[in-house]
Write a structure and sequence with these properties.
Number of strands: 19
Largest sheet: 14 strands, mixed
Order of helices and strands: HHHHHHEEEEEEEEEEHHEEEEHEHEEHEE
Strand content: 25-35%
Shape: flat
Structural class: alpha+beta
Helix content: 25-40%
């Protein structure tokens, strides 16, 4: 009997609706328009899901597209305004990805256990792009800007290699096949979980766990199905974990790996989690980081590079919420809040300097 977890029909419809809404936001091609109409006509639940998500998305491009496709649908152009709990809104927008979104269409995924047991594919995003993928076992992967992920499934294991960038992994349960993400010189094995891995360099990594547990090991450590079942209830103090020199990170915790060394596990506040994972809603949140650190993060989402005319600017503290890739908004905020002016030295180079207060 297969242990592969499947979406409920409602979850699957919502996931498809999310992708269609995102596609409408950036503009449907003629072929995509026809595919969307066909999908909506298959089931009334499809249409209901699209319109429900459109109320939350509330972008004119989406509403206009729906109006042209369904001219008789009531209240398309005037969505009901409603108070939405932040955690609910965040989960919805994590699926929708407010930032630039790659629409991937509907893949013809393997459907039988035999087909799903052997699956390999490479997923990538460009600078400034983000994408959501649903793997054959219903694992959901969100890739951040400039990321490259290799997926290889066999009948005994699910192995992914994050060659660059950042990803969020909502892992489908399958006790017979451990799920491992390899990044640089570390492996992250899910013990029934949702987690985020950011690769800054081969030896510099970040792990944030928002549900369940993740075990950090060296790539040479192979976790089989028997080990997997035992480790699900393990902690950092158990002999099985110590034996393989592993670290267990639980929900609400963060692990930093610097120069291949795993630092002490850090417990996160809700604000910490929101800040670290803001990219999943297409946003960047800074709360006292230095300007140099903030600019380094901003540069991940754009071809624009920043030069500081005065080295003293590097240590200025930055706070605020910015849309990923919104360079104009960032420059306006720096001018208004920190009196930092800018000068464009070329198409993709911006020089920052103290404003003239004379």
């Amino acid at each position: 009997m297969s242990n592969i977890h499947q979406f409920s029909s409602k979850d699957a419809i919502q996931a498809d609706a999310s992708r269609w809404i995102s596609a409408m936001d950036r503009g449907l091609s003629k072929q995509e328009r026809m595919q969307f109409q066909h999908w909506v006509q298959q089931n009334k639940a499809h249409q209901d899901a699209v319109f429900e998500l459109a109320q939350l998305w509330d972008e004119l491009s989406v509403l206009n597209e729906l109006s042209s496709l369904f001219p008789n649908k009531n209240s398309i152009n005037k969505p009901a305004r409603r108070e939405i709990n932040f955690s609910i809104a965040a989960s919805v927008f994590a699926a929708l990805l407010v930032a630039s979104f790659i629409f991937l269409g509907i893949e013809q995924w393997p459907t039988t256990p035999q087909e799903q047991a052997k699956y390999s594919k490479i997923y990538r995003t460009k600078v400034g792009e983000q994408a959501t993928f649903v793997l054959p076992d219903s694992t959901i992967v969100q890739l951040n800007t400039n990321s490259l992920l290799e997926v290889a499934y066999t009948k005994n294991r699910r192995q992914l290699i994050l060659s660059r960038g950042e990803g969020r992994f909502n892992v489908a349960k399958d006790a017979a096949r451990p799920f491992t993400v390899m990044a640089g010189d570390k492996s992250f094995t899910a013990l029934g979980t949702v987690f985020n891995v950011q690769r800054n360099a081969a030896s510099d990594l970040e792990l944030v766990v928002t549900e369940g547990k993740v075990m950090i090991t060296d790539p040479s450590v192979a976790v089989n199905a028997d080990d997997f079942v035992q480790l699900q209830s393990a902690s950092n103090d158990t002999d099985s974990v110590k034996k393989i020199n592993a670290s267990i990170v639980i929900s609400g915790e963060k692990a930093l790996i610097k120069e291949s060394i795993t630092k002490p596990i850090k417990r996160l506040t809700q604000d910490d989690v929101q800040r670290d994972l803001a990219w999943q809603q297409g946003m960047l949140i800074f709360n006292g980081e230095s300007l140099s650190e903030a600019l380094q993060e901003v540069s991940r989402y754009t071809a624009t590079r920043f030069e500081l005319a005065d080295p003293a600017l590097a240590s200025l503290k930055v706070a605020g919420v910015f849309k990923a890739g919104d360079i104009i908004g960032l420059l306006d905020s720096l001018r208004i809040n920190l009196a930092i002016e800018h000068e464009r030295l070329g198409e993709h180079i911006v020089s920052l300097k103290h404003g003239d207060h004379s």
